[in-house]
Amino acid sequence: MSSSPITRRDLDRLAVPAIISGIAEPIIALSDTAFAGRIGAADLAAVGIGSSFFLLVLWVLAQTRSAVLAVVARYYGEGRLVDVSDLVPIALWMNVGLGLLFYGVTVPLAEGIFMLYDPAPEVLSKAVGYYRIRAIGHPLALGVFAMTGAFRGIQNMRWSMWISLTGAAVNLLLNPVLIFGWGPAPAMGINGSALASVIAQGTMFLISVRVLTTRTPFQLLPDRWHHRELAGLLRNSGNLFARTIALNACYFFGNRFATGYGVAHIGAHSIAMQIWLFSAFFIDGYAAAGSIVAGRLNGERDWAQLHRVSWQVVRVTVVIGAVLAGLYTAGYGIIGGWFTDDPEVLRLFREVFWLVILTQPINAVAFAWDGIFKGIGAGAALRNALLAATFGIFIPAAYAADHLGWELHAIWTAFLLWMVARGTWLTVAFERLLPAERRHLSERRLHS
Questions:
Q1: How far is Cα 215 from Cα 212, in angstroms, rounded to an integer?
Q2: Structural domain spans, the chain
Q3: How open is the CA angle 221-79-367, to the nearest 5 degrees?
Q4: Cα–Cα distance list, 212 to 88, 304, 307 (Å)
Q5: Residue 445: pLDDT above 60?
Q6: How far apart are the C-alpha atoms of 65 and 54, rounded to whole Å?
Q7: Measured between alpha carbons, how far is 64 from 52 in angstroms, rounded to an integer?
């Protein structure tokens, strides 16, 4: 049982560095998108496709971070952290191995993969070149995710924050140098943007290793390559893999439809999606705080606080989503210009940006529950929610609206309905997960 109630201040103390850490990766993507937009519409489209596929692979494989967090946080709550000292390095090198495997598989097949998006020949060539460099970052990024999952499990978000900020700073500094050239450095175009991202991820990996080996009870190499929690970790990771595959199916279909509408359409959709993802990671920062605390309370078996804190996280994330929606509304006429000066791309973006804004507080509900369920290791519930929302709502809605000729409006209407379905499903699932009689029993113990 928890020794004292968890307050809003406790959540905020975790959430602020979590938000800063969470937005580092989308800032890298936004930076790539903004610089690519200054080169031309084809380059913008190529970066949109290439970075989307990179993130698709990364997010599918990175779910071990949430699984590691859930196990480490539970053992932290139980006061038995030493018992998982071998599990963290096992997860680290398992992730690095997965990254190397998918680099070896996807790079030779890159042209065939990107042909599925049906891009123009110029866009296809640029996207393949961009991805072949960016994909070097798969093992590096996955290794960082495993280590930061362990940091989060021991209730420390500051290390992840500084690691992420360093990576974002390196990327932002190198982007203009490698894209446009400076001094003896040749101009590499969007390939320079991909290289800047890889260098940033390598920097983050080295810093993470340093923190792991000097500031935590975990080692770089395990004493033994087996752990009793490994099967459960892999099972939870598998559920989260399936969830993320369903999630990325939506991103794929969105890009596939947008690419089919034309170069300007995929350019506008890429801008809208990068803003949507930035918001998702921003909101997810508070959800990450909930995930950390939920994992600990799960270890302490404090069901009453788990229920109360979870709903508090939902309420705060909705407020954050509403604030983002307000800021985007205030900047409606200028935000697109930060990424491109192409008049057709800007026109198309502004036609659908209102849908991106509308999703923000709705997204918050689903993202908050995502964090809570990851923290308590309930990957099966997240898997079921995403499979149902994707194949029952998003894909049918996208095809139906596309048939009606809605074009980009079809994609973003499907995203809106998808997020409503996800949030509703997880809200119901959470209440079923913690039945009322169990909460009431825990509440009586809390006040006794």
A1: 6
A2: 8-447
A3: 80
A4: 10, 33, 32
A5: no
A6: 17
A7: 20
